[in-house]
Amino acid sequence: MKYVSEFRQGRLASGLIEKIKRSSHTPVNFMEFCGSHTVSIFRYGIRQVLPETVSTLSGPGCPICVTSNVDLDKAIALARTPNVIMASFGDVLRVPGSFTSLQAVRAEGADVRVIYSAIDALQIARDNPTRQVVLLGIGFETTAPTIAASIMQAKQEDLNNFSVLSWHKLSPPAMKSLLDAGDVAIDGLICPGHVSIITGSQAWEFIARDYGIPCVVAGFEPLDILQCVDMLVTQVENGEAKVEIAYTRGVQHAGNTVAQKLMKRVFEPCFAQWRGIGAIPGSGLKLREEFSKFDAEQVFDIAPGPTREPKGCICGEVLRGVKTPIDCPLFAGACTPENPVGACMVSSEGSCFTYYLYGGKNA
Amino acid sequence: MCVAIPALIRSIDNDLAQVEIGGITQQTNLQLCPQAKVGDYVIVHTGYAISILDQEEARETLKLFESIARVAAEEENCR
């Protein structure tokens, strides 16, 4: 595929790896915020080709993993509500809430449908005018504008049976919260490429400025990640901390201003509960009052009951980068992709799933 | 969740574009990239184009990688 395969060439990777090996002297720990980066790093064996001085660490950038049980239980309760069609991106279905999952309630008869795009949810609403369609709005800045666009479309069409349960989260406040907690030492941040397409690289400037941590925005092909690591190593060795882009074909400093405006028009920041991290002010997105007709929290009276966390699961510490999946007593034993205990083993970009898929206990 | 891939715009009808991804034609919404034109590559996420791929920057990046690989190969030969 054009603009994909070119960035996977082994010959060019060798050059970048050599360059990193030559320039890296200081031992460093780089965090990749984004779960899709974790997947690429494992899929292409990038950890194995980096010099011993360079370690990478998974961050909290997996929207499904950081969704709290409180929110999952709400979705499950909503899916069980008569006359409701729940439209969801696929990975969410298998994530266990406190007592059950969307997949399990679907097997019991709830109408839960897997969608590829918010556009599909709109179509389901048009096709089922006597039913209430609830779109599970999950994702970071990459996805939020697409959900905002669907809400604007619903308003334009005056759809009366479409609403969104907004779990959207913002990446920079989560990174700030991790750094303020201070229990993980990071020498550089591999910034999320597709979040940054929307926010622009400017979103990470406070990390370089206030925390003195080098930041480089990366794409998701192996050469993109190697280029990012090279740029981070160079900053560390030169004693610099600034924001750079290793994905200039996609990301600009200011980001996608059309998407930013649309997001701001439909959503406003709110408190959000993150699994493992807790409540972070201004890190979630809720629908503005003007769009309350499309806000599932307003349309439905949702009472999911008490929540509980799975016993022994360390997803929270994994998401904070304090522990790795192999530190978990449940990993690859009681908790596997077939029978997941925690969210990080379900999502295709969860750290536990990725470790399991690409190496099991030897990852 | 944040997976997105480059797609070539073949035709545009209002907000909707027919795009080609690895030989497969698909429909993509252009509301978040209103300035995209036929012949552009856009980065597509869940059915929406979120960015126009800068083809010039892509070529420049690959040129840079070529020169890094050349230097690495020369140094290897000198050893």
List the SSEs and their pairings:
The complex is a heterodimer of chains A (363) and B (79).
Chain A: H1 10-23, E1 28-34, H2 35-43, H3 46-49, E2 54-61, H4 63-66, H5 69-79, E3 84-89, H6 102-107, E4 111-115, H7 118-127, E5 132-137, H8 144-157, E6 162-166, H9 171-181, E7 188-192, H10 193-199, H11 205-211, E8 215-218, H12 222-237, E9 243-246, H13 257-266, E10 267-274, E11 278-287, H14 296-299, H15 315-319, H16 351-357
Parallel strand pairs in A: 1-2, 1-7, 3-4, 3-5, 5-6, 7-8, 8-9
Antiparallel strand pairs in A: 10-11
Chain B: E1 5-13, E2 16-21, E3 24-29, E4 41-45, E5 48-52, H1 55-78
Antiparallel strand pairs in B: 1-2, 1-4, 2-3, 4-5
Summarize the structure.
The complex is a heterodimer of chains A (363) and B (79). Chain A is 38% helix and 19% strand.
Description:
The complex is a heterodimer of chains A (363) and B (79). Chain A has two domains: 1-300, HypD, alpha/beta domain 2 (Rossmann fold, 3-Layer(aba) Sandwich), CATH 3.40.50.11740; 315-362, no CATH class. Helix content of chain A is 38%, strand content 19%. Chain A is built from 16 helices and eleven strands. Chain A has helices at residues 10-23, 35-43, 46-49, 63-66, 69-79, 102-107, 118-127, 144-157, 171-181, 193-199, 205-211, 222-237, 257-266, 296-299, 315-319, 351-357, and strands spanning 28-34, 54-61, 84-89, 111-115, 132-137, 162-166, 188-192, 215-218, 243-246, 267-274, 278-287. Chain A is globular, with a radius of gyration of 21 Å. The two termini of chain A are 29 Å apart. Chain B has 79 residues and is of the alpha+beta class. Chain B has a single domain, classed as SH3 type barrels. Chain B contains one helix and five strands, in the order βββββα. Chain B has one helix at 55-78, and strands spanning 5-13, 16-21, 24-29, 41-45, 48-52. In chain B, strands 3-2-1-4-5 form a five-stranded antiparallel β-sheet, with no helix packed on it. The mean pLDDT of chain B is 95. At the A-B interface, helix 1, helix 7, helix 8, helix 10 and helix 13 of A face strand 1, strand 4, strand 5 and helix 1 of B.
